[in-house]
Specification:
The protein is of the alpha/beta class and 470 residues long. The protein is built from 14 helices and 21 strands. The two termini are 22 Å apart. The N terminus is likely disordered.
């Protein structure tokens, strides 16, 4: 049963976590914008901190917002402020049009037909693969395997490469900050092979301890699985160094690039990583498709992950032979429209320029961190930005004595601000930090300084509201 609290002309539906709050029967139940905050006087939101022209009216965020129809609406009577981009990004009109064009004009299966529609669909599908290859600077397009998402891509490596190459006593090195999708498949593989999973903790700056990581990569290590950018801490790992340390002992490296590929230049040849995964839906493309990059010699040596149509050369009653890369790993009818939509998203991002996107987001990230960390009783996780430390454009945080889900619910229902609450598929990291969950505001290049300002003003109002029950 959810508590209903009447407030002037509005009704706020608060989640079950508020059942423990005892309301004062003598207090009028409404939003108190000047209510006490914690033990201090009322806490009005401070004026914006930044006068940086890069964040002003002509910024990248202002220039690209018109391309995203979903952003131009009201939610619960307020202008939508979408700050949940680490969970999924919004899609420009060009991507929506590409999906519509496929289904309206040349919907057909790929690789199997000789008629016009099938040939057109096949050409566009394979062109999308080439676009992905170019985007991350792979050596050739056959090093790109389309998967259902990044999770499936990691599972592909785990079950195909992992089960074939790991044995009892071999070590897989990870960090405490990995996404569940980068942990659970290797737990399965370890149970089957006897391999050992070893985890690197955080250092004093709340970044995975790179020094300890280097020490842990011994000759027993066969694989290092690391994120490029943390979806909780906003920290960025030096992947090129990690790859160098791993290769020195003959180990392979798998990079979870879900939070980096959409936001910065990622060059797999420069990084020299063995495997890399990413998801379309975080890079302005459709849901339901991701990709695995793998060095061609590794992919060629790996057995298929799934069996069925498309991944075969010949099928006999007692055995089968397999197709060449990348078809060997793409069993069944693929997500054709979604791949084409991903290709269009890459066209859109490339037209802007990933370096330009990255530079703008760094300024926006610093602005978000400065404003949020100045709010009383707020604890922001991850490193403090500096000249030598670059944070990604997200902040996970907690407010003293207020549950993250209550914060997210109030921000949505009263202010139209969309953030995330929960463990963000990183329960081991949250346990290490001593909390069950956190709230998270995450930005993309179509966000603006005004979005951050609206979020901070709304957060002050949210905190004051909950403080009024103390």
């Amino acid at each position: 049963m959810m508590m209903m609290i009447s407030m002037e002309s509005a009704v706020v539906k608060l989640p079950p976590s508020l059942r423990t709050i005892k309301l004062n029967p003598n207090r009028k139940n409404r939003i108190l914008r000047t209510a006490p905050f914690a033990s201090s006087a009322s806490a009005p939101a401070p004026a914006p901190l930044s006068t940086d022209p890069q964040l002003g009216p002509g910024s990248l965020g202002h220039l690209t917002r018109p391309d995203f129809p979903i952003l131009h609406q009201e939610v619960n009577g307020k202008r939508l402020v979408y700050l949940d981009n680490a969970a999924t990004s919004q899609k420009p009109a060009a991507v929506v049009d590409a999906l519509r064009n496929y289904y309206e004009l040349y919907n057909s299966n790929v690789h199997r037909g000789i008629h016009y529609l099938s040939a057109k669909a096949t050409d566009e599908y394979e062109l999308a693969r080439q676009k992905v290859s170019n985007f991350i600077n792979a050596s050739e397009s056959r090093e790109i395997v389309f998967t259902r998402n990044a999770t499936e891509a990691i599972n592909l490596v785990a079950y195909s490469w992992g089960l074939s190459n790991l044995k009892e006593g071999d070590e897989v090195i990870l960090t405490i900050a990995e996404h569940h999708s980068a942990i659970v498949p290797w737990q399965f593989v370890a149970q089957k092979t006897g391999a050992v999973l070893k985890f690197v903790n955080l250092g004093e700056d709340e970044v995975p301890d790179v020094g300890k990581l280097r020490e842990m990569i011994s000759k027993r290590a066969k694989l290092v699985v690391v994120h490029h950018v943390s979806n909780v801490l906003a920290s960025v790992l030096p992947i090129d160094q990690v790859v160098s340390w791993a290769h020195d002992v003959g180990a392979k490296v798998l990079v979870d690039a879900c939070q980096s590929v959409p936001h910065m230049v990622v060059d797999v040849r420069s990084l020299d990583t063995d495997f890399l995964v990413a998801s379309s839906h975080k890079m302005c493309g459709p849901t339901g498709i991701g990709f695995l990059y793998g060095k061609s010699e590794l992919l060629s040596s790996m057995p298929p992950f799934l069996g069925g149509g498309e991944m075969i050369a010949d099928v006999y009653l007692d055995h089968s032979t397999y197709a060449e890369l990348p078809s060997k790993f793409e069993a069944g009818t693929p997500a054709i429209g979604e791949a084409i939509g991903l290709g269009t998203a890459i066209d859109y991002l490339s037209a802007i320029g990933m370096q330009k996107i990255h530079e703008y987001e760094v300024e926006l990230a610093n602005y978000l961190y400065d404003r949020l960390s100045s709010v009383p009783s707020v604890r922001v996780y991850g490193p403090k930005p500096s000249r030598s430390v670059t944070r990604a454009a997200l902040c996970s945080f907690n407010v003293e004595d207020v549950h993250p889900t209550d914060i997210a619910t109030f921000l949505d229902q009263q202010h139209g601000v969309a953030i995330r609450s929960g463990h963000h598929c990183a329960q081991p990291l949250h346990r290490y930090l001593g909390v069950n969950s956190s709230a998270r505001a995450s930005l993309h290049f179509y966000n603006t300084k005004e979005d951050v300002d609206d979020f901070i003003i709304s957060l002050y109002d949210t905190i004051n509201f909950f403080a009024s029950f103390k």
